[in-house]
Specification:
The protein has 341 residues and is an all-alpha fold. Helices cover 67% and strands 2% of the residues. The protein is built from 14 helices and two strands, in the order ααααααααααββαααα.
Length: 341
């Protein structure tokens, strides 16, 4: 099966960024009305998973062996990509500034570049290094981190852990599908991740509070289920499905850089829906992010190194990425289970 062109991957990634960015503007009213972060993430994940369920069943159409082969990928997406990363991020913003936490988390692309550098012992091409610096500089301007917050080592550690989880999300999403449709991976990850968070909340390890009252949104009071549906359908179901699809096409590193546009989208939504003004430096930051992505996009030859698997032989041609129908294992060990997970 031929992999779609990169241009298609970028369009899908733009959809993912546009929908993922909606979550903050619509979840914030829930949190301000008394919802706990764990409860908000749980309801978000379960709503998104339920919305995707009929599409996932249609996409699978009885090919349950593909689901079984992808069980470790689904579990990884559920525990790290859905539950772990979101809980760590919300825990971080309870101790440090939101802008600081999101800046640290979205350094995940740089972590992936560094990982490839160390793993392959090959210095990234100058265009990748320059693109990384430009994108991070733009991200700093967009989120405008505040310098008046006291240093909190625990909060910073939680944000760094969320950054690692974000990077792992892109690696998991970029793995060869081996017949598992992206919508099935997204659905399984959301449902299992949501149930895991509900179980954690039931134990009392983390606060789990839900307020079924009206919330303030767009200058008026609306039922609590309005932001829940918006976040569940758009910022979760569509966002996760499109993000996984885009990452399978683009690869983990390029998709993670494109994912920086989520910060730009979130800023725009906050401006439109919450009245948070955009500063000229933030607009400049968005331009720099786009420029950094363009620089990384210009480098194609070494992208196969971003994905786990054997490195190309010296002098051998370096493919754009591992084909989506590859059967490279991604589980505990080769031979320890049926075909790749």
């Amino acid at each position: 099966m031929r992999r779609p062109p990169l241009s298609v991957g970028f369009l899908v990634a733009l959809l993912a960024a546009a929908t993922f960015g909606m979550s903050g503007a619509f979840v914030k009213p829930l949190l301000e009305s008394g919802w706990s972060p764990v409860a908000a993430v749980t309801v978000r994940a379960l709503t998104g998973g339920i919305v995707l369920l009929p599409f996932a069943l249609f996409a699978v159409r009885g090919r349950w062996r593909a689901v079984w082969r992808g069980r470790w990928r689904i579990l990884g997406m559920a525990t790290i990509g859905v539950a772990g990363t979101q809980v760590l991020y919300f825990a971080a913003i309870q101790r440090i500034a939101v802008s600081t936490a999101i800046l640290v988390e979205y350094l995940a692309p740089i972590l992936l570049v560094a990982f490839v550098w160390v793993r392959s012992r090959r210095t990234p091409k100058p265009v990748v290094l320059v693109g990384s610096v430009v994108a991070v500089a733009g991200l700093v301007l967009v989120v405008s981190p505040s310098g008046d917050q006291p240093f909190d080592a625990i909060g910073l550690a939680l944000a760094i852990a969320a950054m690692v989880g974000c990077a792992v999300f892109y690696v998991i999403a970029a793995r060869p599908s081996d017949g598992l449709p992206p919508v099935a991976l997204a659905c399984g990850g959301l449902l299992i991740g949501g149930l895991a968070l509900a179980a954690v909340g039931a134990t009392g390890l983390l606060p789990f509070t839900v307020r079924l009252t009206d919330v303030a949104l767009l200058g008026t009071a609306v039922p609590w289920w309005v932001p829940v549906l918006v976040v569940g359908v758009f910022a979760t179901a569509i966002a996760y499905a499109s993000s996984i699809t885009a990452t399978e096409i683009l690869g983990s590193r390029l998709a993670s850089f494109t994912g920086l546009l989520e910060v730009v989208a979130a800023t725009l939504y906050a401006w439109l829906l919450l009245g948070e003004s955009l500063q000229p430096l933030q607009l400049l930051g968005g331009v720099l992010i786009l420029g950094g992505i363009a620089l990384v996009r210009a480098e194609k030859a070494d992208r196969a190194l971003t994905e786990p698997g054997p490195l190309p032989e010296a002098g051998a041609p370096e493919p754009r990425d591992v084909p989506s129908h590859s059967t490279t294992p991604v589980g505990p060990a080769r031979g320890s289970e049926s075909p790749r997970t």
